[in-house]
Amino acid sequence: MIRVLHVIATLDRAGAEKQLVDLCRNLDRSEFEPAICCLTRGGPFAADLRRAGVSIHLLNKRGRWDLRVIWRAMRVIREFQPHIVHTWLPTANTLGRVASLAAGVPVLIASERAKDAWKGMARLTADRILAKRTTLTVTNAEAVRDFLVEEIGLPKEKIRVIRNGLDLAEFDAAAAKGPSAALPDPEGCLVIGAVGRLERQKGMADLLEAFARLPADLQQVKLWIVGEGPLERKLQRKAAEMEMEERVRFLGARSDVPALMTRFDLFVLSSLWEGLPNVVLEAMAARRAVVATKVDGTPEAVTHGWTGVLVPPSNPVVLAQAIERLLRDPALRRKYGEAGRQKVEQRFGLDRMVKETQAMYREALAEAGIRDP
User: Fold this and answer.
1) Range in 32-36, 253-257, 347-351 the model is least confident about
2) 372 inside domain
């Protein structure tokens, strides 16, 4: 049995965390035994994992520089004795890799999900040092792979691109159940939807600027912003200052995103940088037309002129124009929505993601000289 320990900061509702949960729930249990190590805390996804029989270890990291969590992670590693440690997202990719190397884990895999333009020189230097001791790095987009090769200096042969996978049956069933709570606007009202953490990366301020630019005859359109984060109050104040309190709805964190997607008339992603955004795949699965910024891996999901419209980042004027065009053309929205669903079915299925990840694990073990553990 191949034991795989996944290390991540939290199990909050977000794209990478959802991919981790779906992977662990669908690994071949006759061959793989997964476990989770959360550096900071658990989260809403913990219940799904426990129901699937996946053990979770919480390390209660305190603050940004609580390096004691490395020793706690080493204890978990020594107890579970994984053949593979798979780290996810920047915090775990740093602290989890340090703990794994100190504990002598045979195979170490790091998951890089975006270009993470916020990283400073110290963080990038740490990435370069740790990458030399990492068996493989896996990413979800070719754009991120290219960044790792060109900016971090990773050998291309040590990177695997495994695109996100969506369980369409689960998604459709959740959508069919309907919303878990009352919606803020009645049926028949045009709704633009945006889903994501309320932080700089997601460019929500640009979206508010674009929404404010819609012409007078589209002033009855509503904007639903789903998610929470450090910029929530600032964005709410901005909407109030622009006199849009009655048009912009801040719905907070929701567990019923598939149902909300079916209520959107148009989905917008205004990110400044991305990997392969899981939420865009969900919008496409819900047959929603997409307007998205042309950053990093997003064009690998959204095909301009086929499943939606791509616009430059940090450009509310062009974003507003794309939104207005699709709001005025319901036939084009339907066309893009159907094409998006077809693309997800053909290229972004969960089974493919799981099979490719399992093959990567076997390859990494073979490279380390470990056979039939």
Assistant:
1) 253-257
2) no
Put residue 176 in one of left, alpha, beta given phi > 0 → left and psi -120 to 50 → alpha.
alpha
Strand spans (E) along 69-162: 84-88, 107-112, 136-139, 159-161
Cβ(239)–Cβ(208) under 8 Å?
A: yes
Greater pLDDT, 149 or 124:
149
pLDDT above 90 covers a percentage of the chain that reads 83
| Rounded Cα gap, residues 90 and 107, in angstroms | 19
Give pLDDT tens digits for 268-320: 999 999 999 999 999 999 999 999 999 999 999 999 999 999 999 999 999 99
Query: Which residue segment(s) compose the domain that 203 sits in?
Result: 171-347
| Same domain? 130 vs 194 | no
Rounded-to-integer distance, Cα 295 and Cα 274, Å: 6
Which CATH number goes with the domain that contains 156?
A: 3.40.50.2000
Q: 63, 84, 60: which is closest to 73 by C-alpha?
A: 60
pTM of the model: 0.91
Q: Model confidence at 117, in pLDDT bands (50, 70, 90)?
A: low
How far apart are the C-alpha atoms of 142 and 144, rounded to whole Å? 5
Residue 131 CA neighbour count, 13 Å, CB half: 22
Q: Which of 82-86, 113-117, 141-145, 344-348 comes out lowest in average pLDDT?
A: 113-117
Instruction: Pick the closest to residue 202 from 273, 290, 284 (CA basis).
Output: 273
The DSSP code sequence of 155-187 is -GGGEEE----B-HHHHHHHHHH--SS--SS-T
DSSP state of 148: I
- 285: exposed, middle or buried (C-beta count within 10 Å: 0-12, 13-18, 19+)? buried
User: First vs last Cα of the chain: how many Å apart?
Assistant: 6
